[in-house]
Design a protein that fits this description.
Length: 356
Amino acid sequence: MLGTSAGNHHHPPMLQRATLCLVSVIAALLTATTFFRVELLHHLLWAKGPERNNSLDSCPYGHFRLTGMKDCLSWLSCETIRSEVTVTKLMGRGAVKQVFLAHWKGHQVTLSRLTVSEFSNDFFHGLEMLKGLQSVYVVKLLGYCEGDKTILTEYHPFGSLINVNSILEQENHRGFNTWEVRFRLAVEYAMFLHFLHTSPLGPRVMCDSNDLGKTLSQYLLTTDLHVVANDLDALPLVNRSAGLLIKCGARQLWGDFVAPEQLWPFGDDLPFSDDLMPPYDEKTDIWKIPDVTDFLLGQVEGSDVLRLHLFQLHRDCKRTMPQQRPTALRVVQTYKAVYTSLTQELDLYSGTVHDL
Ligand SMILES: Nc1ncnc2c1ncn2[C@@H]1O[C@H](COP(=O)(O)OP(=O)(O)O)[C@@H](O)[C@H]1O
Ligand SMILES: [Mg+2]
């Protein structure tokens, strides 16, 4: 017996060898298919991201093109805005601007107008930032009129990121109400912060973000479910080489949403004074990421598993010492790595493809 089995071991009969061969081929095929499906899914999810839009409708600086326009046009002037843009209705209103839905040559557009002259510095700062930061991460500028204190931008009917839940829960969007789509919004939000912290206008901080609602209201949700930053009225510059840090306004801030270094550090005994308040840097944006991402993930199948995978990273974002928090780039990289490993895991276990 022993002799026979030893002999079989060294010289398996044809059938056994063929079976072994077949099993290896099937295993290799399965691995390859899984790999390609994951790669395809990854491509689908990220290729629909900001990079793709960029190559499709990029125009030279100072120009724009809306869907359906063949050529790039230069930003509209005061005269053109006055004569060709018709305001339809008030859509939104923040501290600085009144935001109107308007029409221009058959396109729906957005006209923002300064509300009170007290905020005119913020308004013009916002305009400069919009001009200087035009990219896939920022709402498209179509024109402006400094004299009339108006800015014309692309209209996004889904409105601000506050509407994410109500939009994705609509019957016709249910198919998109997945952890993958929601997580991509969070990745794009983090990508914008990375862009802002290393921007062509120097490292900038998203200051108009003292609570979750306020923060979400500064970003828009596009109809193809991407995130663009819209309100750039408060982006102070961190000039590290000159030793210049920033402060988000001159008033005292409260609560858990803002970073600990944004709170008055000297207790109740000493009344708040802006002169004594120590400045800080862009790591305040990192502190806020877990709260924004948590909101964006919502309560759908898979979002709690994802939260578990993000636990350590988000704990690092909430470190008291700003310099111990990760950079926005590291957040983006970790988010992408978590996304890839989770889709692979799910794909292997369930055999399903999580289509967009
Ligand atoms: N281009 C746009 N498309 C759709 N909604 C917009 C657009 N721009 C602004 N809004 C709406 O108006 C609100 C206020 O706009 P925002 O630029 O943040 O003004 P403020 O500077 O006064 O805060 C936004 O939160 C959003 O709901
Ligand atoms: Mg705003």
